[in-house]
Every structure is written in structure tokens, then in C-alpha cells.
Amino acid sequence: xxxxxxxxxxxxxxxxxxxxxxxxxxxxxxxxxxxxxxxxxxxxxxxxxxxxxxxxxxxxxxxxxxxxxxxxxxxxxxxxxxxxxxxxxxxxxxxxxxxxxxxxxxxxxxxxxxxxxxxxxxxxxxxxxxxxxxxxxxxxxxxxxxxxxxxxxxxxxxxxxxxxxxxxxxxxxxxxxxxxxxxxxxxxxxxxxxxxxxxxxxxxxxxxxxxxxxxxxxxxxxxxxxxxxxxxxxxxxxxxxxxxxxxxxxxxxxxxxxxxxxxxxxxxxxxxxxxxxxxxxxxxxxxxxxxxxxxxxxxxxxxxxxxxxxxxxxxxxxxxxxxxxxxxxxxxxxxxxxxxxxxxxxxxxxxxxxxxxxxxxxxxxxxxxxxxxxxxxxxxxxxxxxxxxxxxxxxxxxxxxxxxxxxxxxxxxxxxxxxxxxxxxxxxxxxxxxxx
Length: 436
Ligand code: SF4
Ligand code: SF4
Hints:
CATH superfamily of the largest domain: NADH-ubiquinone oxidoreductase 51kDa subunit
CATH topology of the largest domain: Rossmann fold
Shape: globular
Radius of gyration: 21 Å
Number of strands: 17
Distance between the termini: 48 Å
Number of helices: 13
Strand content: 15-25%
Structural class: alpha/beta
CATH class of the largest domain: Alpha Beta
Bound molecules: iron/sulfur cluster
CATH architecture of the largest domain: 3-Layer(aba) Sandwich
């Protein structure tokens, strides 16, 4: 099959595990834990205190600068405002709400007329006020990204590649609400005014492709690109290269080559925010892996603890080795299953063994396989060696900071070297060396 970007791998995708159940269940927690940091940037300050009654959709945290608000995902009483465990491994200030299951909600400020006729400031304000971030995992504030694309971008890309194994949350959206994705694209198209708008889907999502194609006659200026399945096609740089043959320079943003990439779940959220007036209070989450009894997708209220979701999906097998927030390649292993679903949580993955697990006595065989699969054209074997030698200068010279931690090298390494962990430590070494 034709390769559209350098390197990459073909892991076992295991996506069928979670796609069988179509009418998915809604999950509301008894206790919702809503971290004030669910985006890249400055954390929100809590706007409510213990004892306050809150409505679903009410703003409970906000801040200035690179910051978007957090909203209550259930109605009920605030029972704590305190640091709680977060999927990022830190303790993060959180508003904790006891759900009264009345689901009393704010009245959304929907709109009549065409959203495409709104001026850019109004659209950006609505996106910000709805708390929208990149929902594919990046969590960058949506209004800031859209603002940065205006006047600089000729290609708007909807990313529906979902190339990580097991995860099917975006695939669910493609199949069930393709209209919302395309509507969100039309809204951003109207303010960014790109020459080209394209939705990119890997060819292992046949039903999703069919669902989008069926609606494209009503969206004549949006095209679909069906790409050969290959990990990590969903990474921004690889996707841009596959669609436009442009290469984003090291350290630069997609806008530097005239592109803006938003995940399809972000477009659906933009549709609900701008046309219907709903802030983000829920999202689709895939709960999957060999270690969970009933893998499936759920519509999950933000703040739902992982252990609630796992229980609803039938619980864990006895031999479960790890639970990951995200996919097996780039996700983050979780020790504490009280961590909540946040805006960027697309998956809770429960595995019997770690696909990128390191050997007890890892040895480099100098086979060069890691070099042949690295989509960033790095030399992982040397990066490993220089990190072990504590040589920050060589790590910089060999461009470690360009590593996007995709895990392709570790996946393919016959010596089972803990490459990604080592690279994370190497980046820390570089940062510390530059601070001296
Ligand atoms: S794939 Fe692994 S064993 Fe082979 S050269 Fe790279 S680091 Fe060494
Ligand atoms: S983890 Fe880094 S070094 Fe390894 S393949 Fe991905 S980009 Fe290359």
C-alpha cells in the first residue's frame, strides 16, 4: 500500500472489540471530580465553594490568558474544592460535586439563523465560553488555535484518523453524528476562510467513510481523503505531509505551512457550542482492551472516575497489568483509578500486558529497525545511548526534542529497550541543562 509519510508501523489495531454496541450507554457519576486544569495553559480558578448548588453547564472555573473555563457536568452540591489525582499524574485543584441526578441544567443560548453569518469574534467567544479544547488528546484551547489560523492558513483539516490501536471514540462520532462534524467544519471554515477543507479518515473505518460521504453533497466545499491505515498517521505533522506533501519544520506549528488540524470530536463540540449553546460536559470514551470484560464506547459525563467506568464495563480481569488513559502507544499508565475522565480522555484502556513493555535486561542489537520506522527520521538507538551516557549536548544535536513519543521505535525494537521512557528522561535532561 502507498506510504504517504516516512516510517510508521502496523500494530494490531483491535478496534472491532469496542464497535459492536451501537446504542451506547450514558454514564453519570455519583461524585463528579472536575479538575481546574483540563487544557494546555494556565489553570482555572474555582468560581464556586463548598456547599454551593450548581447546575449542569454552569461555569465552575475560569481564568485569563491561555485558559478556557470548566463547567459542571452534573447538577448537585459542591462537596469539596481541593487537589485530587489527575490523569497527568499530578494532584490538581478540583471541584467535587455530589450528583443529585436531577440533571438540572442551565438554559443554553442557542441561535437561530446561519452560524456561518456570525462574525469571527462572536464565534471565537462562543468556542471559548464552551470550554472547547483539542479533544483528540492535545487539549489546546480551541479558540486560540482557531484565532492563530485566521489569515495564515489555506488548508483546514478534520482529523478522523484515530490511528492508535483499540480507540474507536472518533469512529463512533463519524458513524453516529457525521452531521455535527461537518457542521463544525462549516463554522470554522466561515471564519478561517481556507482554500481547502478536508476530512481525513483511515481506510479501516469503512462505515465512518460511508456516513461522511453520504452527507458531502450538502457540503460541496468539503472533501474527504481516505488514507491507508498506518500508525502514526493521526499525528499532525504526518497527516499534513500525507495530505499536502508539506513538511512542518522542527519546532514549528502547522500554521507555518498553511495548515490547521482539529480533531473531529472538536468539530462536533464546536457545532454544539456555536449553534446550540452547549458547553462541554460530556464526551465519548472508549473503554477497551483484553483486560476489560465488556469493551465498548460510552457517553461519559466529565469528572466520572475511571473505576466507575470500568465497573460499568464489567470490571477488570484478574491478570490486568495496566490501565492507560489514551492508547497503548502514546497513552499514560494510571496507578490510581479514582482519576476522572477529562476533556481530552478518549479512552480507558485495560491491558493484560504492555505492548511496548521493556525486557528485564534490554540489549541493543544494532539492527536499525528503530531508524527505519521513526516518522521524524531520528536515530533512536543513538538517542538511547546518549541519554544513558548523560550527554545532553549530543541529545540536542541528534534532535531529541523533535521526538513526539509515538512509540513506533519501541514497538518494533527486538531488544525491547525502554526507548520512549528513556527519551522522556532525555528531554528532562536537556531542559535541566538549559536552565543551568
Ligand atoms: S530497534 Fe532496538 S535493538 Fe534495533 S537498533 Fe534500534 S534500539 Fe537497537
Ligand atoms: S518515539 Fe520518537 S524516536 Fe521513537 S519513533 Fe516515535 S518520534 Fe521516533
